[in-house]
Amino acid sequence: MAATRVDSFADLQDTFFAYVRDIKYATMITVDRRNRPRARVLLPVWEVVDGRPVGWLAAYRTPVKTAHLAHSPHTTYSYWNPRQNTVHVDALSTWAETDADRRHAWELHTRGGPPGVGYDPIHYWRGGPDDPEYHVIRIDPRRIQLVRGSDLRSTIWQPGTDRPPAVPPAPAEPVEVAGAGARS
């Protein structure tokens, strides 16, 4: 079955948010300096900014995530439910360093984005958005694919000339990571 392709996120926004609201948790995939994938389950929140989806992920800045994103900010977030509905988000993921972004992501996690998806981050970061262990990853999708499990109908959003920010160059020397720890 051929996929339906759309240029406007608005054409699949309602289904995207419905699937994300139903599934909630996504598997985030990054790659290490040898291009080996690593997956972890996390809970991004989403909003629409200037007609484009933007995701926010409250996260610990672990050595593994830091090294992987330094090597390549290209990531995939995958959602799945037992009805076989899936969402696949290919994106550029970067650390959001400003206080305004950190506070914005905190508020979006607290109120839910979309409504019904989120949590109170105070359970993990007692110091609130100023907690030194609280960090945020901004997710700028470059491609989203929705698959409806009942008939495997697929819809793909990939903007034309409206692209996310340019990819920062990879570091000249690979980043060595010792002691990956449990929070990867």
Q: Helix proportion of residues, in percent?
A: 10-25%
Number of helices: 3
Order of helical and strand elements: EHEEEEHEEHEE
Strand segment count: 9
- Report on the biggest sheet: 9 strands, mixed
Structural class: alpha+beta
**Gap between N and C termini:** 37 Å
Overview of this protein structure:
With 184 residues, the chain is α+β, with helices and mostly antiparallel strands. The chain is built from three helices and nine strands. The N and C termini lie far apart (37 Å).
Give a quick summary of the entry.
The chain is 18% helix and 35% strand. It contains 3 helices and 9 strands; from the N terminus they run E-H-E-E-E-E-H-E-E-H-E-E. Strands 1, 2, 3, 4, 5, 6, 7, 8 and 9 form a 9-stranded mixed β-sheet that branches.
Q: Which helices and strands, and how do they pair?
A:
Layout lengths: L3 E3 L6 H11 L2 E6 L5 E6 L2 E5 L2 E8 L3 H9 L2 E7 L5 E11 L2 H13 L23 E14 L4 E5 L27
Parallel strand pairs: 1-9
Antiparallel strand pairs: 2-3, 2-6, 4-5, 5-8, 6-7, 7-8, 8-9
Feature tags:
single chain, about 180 residues, alpha+beta, nine-stranded mixed sheet
